[in-house]
Amino acid sequence: MLDGAEVAKHATRESCWIVIDSKVYDVTSFLFRHPGGAAILLRQAGSDATAEFAKVHPLDYVQELPEGSCLGPLDPKTATSLNSPKPQPSREVVSTEELPHPSLCVTTGDFEAAAKSALPHRFWTYVSGSANSGLSLKGNLDDWARIRFRPRVLRNVGTVDMGGSILGHKTQFPFYVSAMGTMGNIHPGAEPETVRGIVRKGLHGVISTASTKTPDEIMDSYRREQSQVGDASPSVLFFQLYLPTDREKAVALIKRAKAAGYQGIWLTVDTPLLGKRTADRRLQAIEALSMGLEQEQTPNRPIGGENSLAPAFGGRDVPGQLSPHTTWEDLKWIRDAWQGPIVLKGIQCADDAKLAMEHGCEGILLSNHGGRQLHTAPSALMTLLEIRTYCPEVLDKLEVYVDGGLRDGADVLKAICLGATAVGVGRPYLYALAAYGSRGIERCTDSKSSMLRFGVLRVTLLTTFKYCRKNWRLL
Ligand code: HEM
Ligand SMILES: Cc1cc2nc3c(=O)[nH]c(=O)nc-3n(C[C@H](O)[C@H](O)[C@H](O)COP(=O)(O)O)c2cc1C
């Protein structure tokens, strides 16, 4: 057993000890190999880092520390002698009680404002951020507004069914919750908290490889919530796959997702390496400086090299986690390992949509990763219009999803009118989670809130929906 006072002495870059889950680790040799940067670990030096660690990493991640790092258990009686972590150089956070009542959130923009006050600055930067100067994100938001409805009137639209199906699973909503990593940054309940809202509302959701919790833990929370509602929720979960470079690891991850009960794979194909997240980079430099590190020193391993750290997280490139070598040929072994439906997430032109069809994919998701990857990438809307022009057969043969910048039921309706099967919604749900937990997830979906202004719009626009599907004209 190690004494807290002894641990507290090891608080420098020359000797850095931390406590995780009641065990003491010497992370000195790992400091500059930590993909999240040395500053994060130095801030915790000599202290109990469990809470900070659990925000972004599953607890079993400690096994990834170099061999011999674990020095032994902490004597619990001496825990009070540990250091306190050094505070982050961040802005004040508004407490939950000070946030507007969730009923006051009637547009997705309201959730965004609440999340901005509720989140520590670094996490706000990570979720709201985008690639380079933000043009891809701006294009996503602006493009949906460039289309106008031309409603037909005097049609009976008294009863409207908004539902459809996603990979054969019925949905009452024409949208689902997009895959988003590291939710532990956003809310202490992380992905399980999101899943609670998803199940209660009967939504479908896609769970990220880069989740804070393991695929099994998240599925357990899904099952628990299902049993709470008497297994009555139509919700299903799909798994978003970032393909690790190492094929054995990739196959193991796919099989793990299968065994856990995920109903389809969303294979992300727009991330052979991570986009340039300008705001994150700036913040990491500030943090490094505040810990006396002249410049950020992160491991300099070749991209695509062996990686023991999967699953990884959104802020930085983690070598080996996002295979840059993947090609269309790889779909075969991925399919063999998965034995189920595959959606390619991140298709950005008609030619690739056709290729996906020729390779037997069940679906494609037109997406530029919420503007976080390629600078000046086309919005999903532009890609959808390109497909309608050059290979409309894709819309008949594949399930075609879109995401990026859909902030209102009207945007969702436009996508559906143009032939999309359903729509992924990302940041609005993250913002709702950040401010209000699973209640926020429900509220964001609620017919009184903006996503289901669709519910209000349907009264006037169902026939537009039918009309447009066949006779779409861009106004
Ligand atoms: C056990 C060994 C650890 C491993 C294998 C590990 C691995 C990683 C990886 C792969 C990332 C992703 C890089 C990124 O996208 O930002 C990361 C980020 C991060 N890690 Fe660790 N980590 C470890 C220990 C810790 C500890 C002890 C803490 C707690 C203080 C911590 C806190 C963080 C944070 C806050 C980030 C996010 C960085 C950002 O937002 O830029 N990690 N870590
Ligand atoms: C904070 C954040 C984390 C994300 N993490 C992932 C991820 O782990 N895997 C992935 O394929 N896409 C990820 N995405 C992209 C989303 O799945 C989705 O494509 C995008 O958010 C849709 O755009 P929207 O946020 O404008 O709705 C992430 C997006 C955000 C904002």
UniProtKB/TrEMBL annotation:
Residues 100-475 form the FMN hydroxy acid dehydrogenase domain. Keywords: Heme, Iron, Metal-binding, Oxidoreductase. InterPro entries: Aldolase_TIM (IPR013785), Cyt_B5-like_heme/steroid-bd (IPR001199), Cyt_B5-like_heme/steroid_sf (IPR036400), Cyt_B5_heme-BS (IPR018506), FMN-dep_DH (IPR000262), FMN_HAD (IPR037396), FMN_hydac_DH_AS (IPR008259). Residues 73-98 are annotated as: Disordered. One of its GO terms (molecular function) is oxidoreductase activity. PROSITE patterns: CYTOCHROME_B5_1 (PS00191), CYTOCHROME_B5_2 (PS50255), FMN_HYDROXY_ACID_DH_1 (PS00557), FMN_HYDROXY_ACID_DH_2 (PS51349). Its cofactor is FMN. The keyword rRNA-binding does not apply. It comes from Coniochaeta ligniaria NRRL 30616. This is Mitochondrial cytochrome-like protein b2. Belongs to the cytochrome b5 family. Residues 1-75 form the Cytochrome b5 heme-binding domain. The keyword Oxidoreductase applies.
